């Protein structure tokens, strides 16, 4: 019995890491905005998104464990190098945009304590580079989980905000679909849950960890637990802002880390609120930065053919570590340079909109084409997955177009 439990814990990790990364800086701001503007009226959506994110990520896990290959590698094998390069090239751009968001989150948390942007971002980049260059996949995974665990602080913050249970139940049933502002935040929350780089990372991670088809059941449990955790964190952020700002300043817009912290500190205490939200934000941003950088390095390696594993020493897989480090350094430099991050974020949203249908489309086609019959998408579940993927892709495109129209 004890041996079986230890075996389970040895396999757990990729699903939890990628889901913790899903609740990144942008997702935190989206959830906070939802609670501040609409109270508990977007709470039901957060619950519905649990099975949706599981469905998408389980396909990535299944493809990785059954084929033993990463996402980019399978696209190249079944659809040709041109499609593989298209998918991975846009992935790299989207990953860079995500990294800018994560480091902006780190910088915002640092500024709350008077730490200059160049110092907070510089320390984050240095830590993440050292972590990968000196460790194995398992050590990187453990550190990522440790960093991401700071997000659980948001659960405590929600509890301390003393939400009204009756108001929460009422919010679950009150869905103002006719309001365009509400629909926009519905779409934004969906876009904050399904990220293209999550698919590339998750599929490559289970392969790099040495997992195989015999681990499929455990990997599914790992993914399900991660899906529940990431949405509980989103719910906690929404509840915390709904119970404080949503009650005392209903409709107040929140767009930055500083605004969220400043709005909550009157209700949680200046020092307590600032420290708790800073720790949660830094944890969310750091684990996402790890996942995004590795997704880019793995994806490019799968298509170009260079060695791409954390199990290889840097001298054996130099390009893998160079790409990983370059992504972090460039993202950090852009944030420190003081460019207009709002304008840049709009461009990143548009790129994500173009990428999401491509990545999800390939994910669906590979699940039908690349898997042997016992593991292939078929029957009623194929229809359900198809509907989820089409709806998610359309929502992502709608959200991005809304930003530029």
Brief overview, please?
The chain is an all-alpha fold and about 400 residues long.
Describe this structure in words.
This protein has helices at 2-11, 14-22, 25-38, 43-67, 71-79, 81-111, 117-134, 137-148, 153-160, 165-173, 180-193, 196-208, 216-243, 245-248, 257-268, 270-304, 318-337, 341-369, 379-404. The chain has 405 residues and is mostly helical. The chain has a single domain (2-404), classed as Up-down Bundle (Amino acid/polyamine transporter I). α6 (81-111) crosses α17 (318-337).
Task: Describe how the helices and strands are arranged.
Elements: H1 2-11, H2 14-22, H3 25-38, H4 43-67, H5 71-79, H6 81-111, H7 117-134, H8 137-148, H9 153-160, H10 165-173, H11 180-193, H12 196-208, H13 216-243, H14 245-248, H15 257-268, H16 270-304, H17 318-337, H18 341-369, H19 379-404
């Amino acid at each position: 019995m004890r041996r079986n439990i230890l075996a389970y814990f040895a396999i757990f990790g990729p699903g939890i890491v990628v889901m913790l990364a899903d609740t990144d800086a942008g997702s935190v701001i989206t959830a906070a905005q939802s609670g501040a503007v609409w109270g508990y009226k977007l709470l039901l959506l957060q619950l519905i998104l649990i099975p949706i994110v599981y469905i998408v990520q389980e396909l990535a896990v299944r493809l990785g464990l059954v084929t033993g290959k990463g996402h980019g590698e399978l696209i190249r094998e079944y659809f040709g190098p041109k499609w593989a390069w298209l998918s991975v090239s846009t992935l790299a751009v989207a990953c860079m945009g995500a990294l800018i968001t994560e480091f902006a989150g780190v910088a915002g948390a640092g500024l709350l304590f008077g730490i200059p942007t160049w110092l907070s971002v510089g320390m984050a980049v240095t830590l993440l580079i050292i972590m990968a260059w000196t460790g194995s996949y398992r050590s990187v995974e453990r550190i990522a989980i440790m960093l991401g665990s700071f997000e659980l602080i948001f659960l405590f913050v929600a509890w301390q905000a003393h939400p009204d249970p009756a108001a929460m139940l009422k919010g679950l049933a009150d869905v103002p679909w006719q309001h365009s502002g509400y629909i926009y935040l519905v779409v934004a929350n969906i876009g904050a849950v399904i990220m293209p780089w999550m698919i590339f990372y998750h599929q490559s991670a289970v392969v790099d960890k040495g997992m195989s088809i015999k681990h499929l059941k455990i990997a599914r449990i790992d993914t399900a637990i991660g899906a529940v955790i990431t949405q509980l964190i989103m719910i906690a952020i929404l509840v915390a802002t709904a119970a404080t700002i949503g009650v005392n300043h209903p409709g107040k817009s929140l767009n930055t880390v500083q605004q969220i912290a400043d709005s909550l500190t009157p209700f949680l205490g200046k020092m307590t609120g600032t420290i708790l939200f800073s720790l949660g934000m830094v944890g969310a941003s750091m684990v996402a930065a790890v996942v995004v950088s590795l997704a880019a390095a793995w994806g490019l390696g799968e298509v170009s053919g260079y060695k791409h594993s954390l199990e290889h020493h840097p001298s054996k897989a130099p390009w893998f570590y160079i790409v990983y480090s370059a992504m972090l350094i460039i993202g950090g430099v852009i944030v420190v340079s003081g460019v207009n991050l709002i304008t840049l974020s709009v461009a990143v949203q548009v790129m994500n909109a173009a990428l999401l249908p491509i990545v999800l489309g390939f994910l669906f086609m590979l699940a039908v084409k690349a898997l042997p019959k016992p593991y292939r998408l078929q029957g009623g579940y194929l229809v359900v997955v198809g509907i989820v993927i089409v709806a998610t892709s359309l929502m992502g495109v709608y959200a991005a177009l809304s930003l530029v129209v």
